[in-house]
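Lay summary. Proteins are chains of building blocks that fold into shapes, and those shapes determine what they do. In this project we predict the shape from the chain. Here is one chain we studied, written as its sequence of building blocks.
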Amino acid sequence: MGIILYLILLSFIQGMTEFLPVSSSAHLLILPYITNIQDQGLVIDISAHIGSLLAVCYFYRKDITQLINSFFSKKCNENLKDKKLSLNLILAFLPIVLFGIIMLAFNIPEIRNPKIVIYTSAIFGVVLYLADLYGSKKKDINNLSYKSAILIGLSQILATIPGVSRSGITLSMARVCGQDRASALKFTFLLSIPTILIVAMGSFIKFIFLMPMPINYFYIIITVIFSFIFSLFAIKFILNWVKKSSFKVFAIYRILLALFLYIFLK
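And here is the predicted shape, written in a compact code that computers can read:
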């Protein structure tokens, strides 16, 4: 497999799995094992995440503008719903920031064992299924409490373990907190913006100071562009999906993935 084709495949996996509740880190972690191609390194991983970040920012550009304007607005009675949502996003974002600081302070290494994905993919696939099955369908994003936002943010910490899925665990917690599927998705996508941004920044700093190496800008551009395209497609796909279906199919996929990896990595 040529390097360009590999980068497109990597971008496809990152773009599709970042916003589907199936864990992008799990798929990217096992890709070198399946293709027998050496991992292209941190800079390509950063590029793929930047593509996803640009896609979700582009898709929700109007919402982002409204949230920023409402947050800094001095008129207390204007755009109260947007202001509450922006505060909820900040509350949900803080736990992963604090956790990241703790990891840096105590030099806690990232978990990179692909065999862990077998268990996390299956376990949190079941969690997603049960949360979606028994979660309330009555509340929308404007009725999310501050407590629920914090719980969603705390659940996001689990996504630092490969195979858990950031979108999957936040969707599960949002459903447990009573959000309907569409609202749970929107909050998850908006929360992904600062989360992906800080992860990319942290990885970039790590790359600059710990792993300096020549950069192939053409590879970076290819990865960002295709990751952007596939991420945008994934966002539109799942938003249309939840209008008529549940998250059950993604839970089943996760369990089948775990079974495949158990056989493949045994």
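What the prediction tells us: DSSP finds eleven helices and no strands in the chain.
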